[in-house]
Specification:
It is built from 10 helices and 6 strands; from the N terminus they run βαβαβαβαβαβααααα. Strand 5, helix 5 and strand 6 form a beta-alpha-beta unit. It has 2 domains: 130 residues, Rossmann fold (3-Layer(aba) Sandwich), CATH 3.40.50; 69 residues, Arc Repressor Mutant, subunit A (Orthogonal Bundle). This is Response regulator transcription factor.
Amino acid sequence: MRVVIAEDDALLREGLAALLRAEAIEVVAVTDSAASLEDLVGAHDASLAVVDVRMPPTWTDEGLRAAIEIRRHRPDFPVVVLSAHVEPAAAGQLLADGAGSVGYLLKERVAAVGDFIHAVHRVAGGETILDPEVVSTLMQRRRSPLAALTGRERDVLELVAQGARNGEIAAKLNVSEAAVSKHIRGIFDKLGLHSEDAGHRRVLAVLSYLRER
């Protein structure tokens, strides 16, 4: 894996690079400018980018916009976006193409090194990973179309949005994998998701409430 890091805080930027290198992940470039991110990804043939949402000059959404632009030119390019706070709108924009290979994590989560590295690998493998606090905030806000879901289906959807696989969901909820599969089919049906691609439907299930801000 070849990673580019875009982060304006020098200490965090170097810390992220050190964490990744300690796990034998190659960091091919670092930058404090969102404007240079796409050029660095191309110049170094990167396979994943770790990007801060808020970067100079306005510290609003420069990093987010840079990540979205990369994916516009390089569909499915894996991106892990870091944010200091829960920003549902940013998560929604990042996931809008429904393509996967996206991570949205709070910066405080980087301190849990194992979880952060695990998320990076899963995003590189095509999965969508949302920070649990982001998911919790979104679940509390949403009433429709989630109103049709049972309490257990909402529990399952929350874990799906966090990137949990069926076996992990089963273990956390103390149910069988068959039961999890049944709940997920129910979620898809109630949300009107009829694609044949189950992985794609998992992303669309998350988008169904991200879009209702």
